[in-house]
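Researcher: Let's run the pair from yesterday's discussion. Sequence first, then tokens, for each.
Model: Starting with the first of the pair.
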Amino acid sequence: MNPYQIDEPTVISFSGGRTSGYMLWKVIQYYEGRLPNDAMICFCNTGKEDEATLQFVHDCETNWKVKINWLEYHVGDPKYREVTFETASRNGEPFDALTTKRNYLPNPVARFCTSELKILTIERFAKLSGWDEFDTMVGIRADEKRRAAKMRDSKRMPLIEDEVYQETVQAFWRSQPFDLGLSFRDGVTPLGNCDLCFLKGPNQILSLIAQKPDRAVWWAEQEKKISGTFRNDRPSYADMMKFSIQQTDMFDNEGGISCFCGD
């Protein structure tokens, strides 16, 4: 069976990154531009993605002529809302609604932001669309097998079956008429997913704050609102915002932590 073939209800989870975008393109190509009825594409917006990510998702749906379901967590029933490129949140509103409801901040141990804002939001949308059972296709490459091992068994990972590596993904986007407008360096896209996600390496976060200090404002406000921090092994976002420009070497070269959000 071709790894991109869909034989049962399947959600194609599009994170808004180059890898999952490449996976989506491979599925579209397999079906010669028209996806089967038992496939749906979902992009979950937390409100903390860079504007370039939203533009990239919009470019994919426009250029490839496919319907992408833009979803956001919502406190009221049915706990999600459908939006568009034009109406999508851009100031962290879904994320803020979640932390306000729980009166608690996610952290590396309790990553309920990923589960609520993305995984469960997709599940709720699919079930209300009439799918009680379905597969989820995620963009995990062949060079990310350690990350794949942490995923649930229900996830389909066609890029691993197809032995797709980072080099293939990057080469593909260099050949396309449009691309994600975020820099790729040292094997990662620093501004991918939530801009200052607490799972990113500390030096990466400091570098992003130094480039644009305003990025830290929302995160610092969240910690102030809850009277807590996203991580107890690092300074607060307010402190990192103060010290980022002068003290970019305040951490060792510590890497980040991968999660469902993907690339």
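Model: Moving on to the second of the pair.
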Amino acid sequence: MTRFVVILIVAVLPAAASAESCPGNPQALGTERVMEVNARVTPRVGRKHFPSTLPLNAKELVLTFDDGPWPGTTSKVLDALKAECVRATFFLLGRNAAAHPQLARRALAEGHTLGHHSYSHPLLSRMALPRAEADIDRGIAADETAIYGSRRSSPATPFFRFPGFASNRALLDRLAARGIVVFGADVWASDWLPMSPEQELHLILSRIEQAGRGIVLFHDTKAQTARMLPAFLRELKRRGFRVVHVVPENAGRNSR
């Protein structure tokens, strides 16, 4: 292996919850493996937003959910993931985490990664830089207070997704300097549009089959997504797709 490849490699850890170890569901999809991600190697990922994405193998997916936590829907999403022993990444909206901290803490307790999605969901690229950074920081503070009881000196999970993917060079540079990985997506379910769970299932599966791998974007605030998710996870298993759980660098060794 060349030095170049060594520098670019993203650490891969043993799977956190394989199908074989899923209580009560031996046919579960499970979580295939855990991938450590850091801003030095992959500062920005997701081809819907950036030129490159995570180094996933064929038929590997990272499942992500935005805008929660939200009463009713987030708990159903968590129930579906737990039933299949699948771990995902939730990009929390600060005002929702502050209003519903018990849901954020449940997601953490069940092994999911909790990233950040601003405080109030503005289009940050349209704001003056100090105001945009203030909303990002307020969101991180609200998320961490909800999850841990207080904010840390730097984010426990340095993952961020821009609302509406509305970034600019100045904000991207600031986050990179802080060691925060910015997540875009490779595939999305368009679940912000009105559709039935069955329509959403057909749409997202067709897009995943076309993409072959990647970061998948849902919203755990959407009732149609919460209702669709159990069938979606079963269908991923049937079609031979595998789930990768992303965590910050060293989290797999230090926090489990």
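Researcher: Give me one sentence on the second I can quote.
Model: Residues 11-254 form a domain with the TIM Barrel fold (CATH 3.20.20.370).
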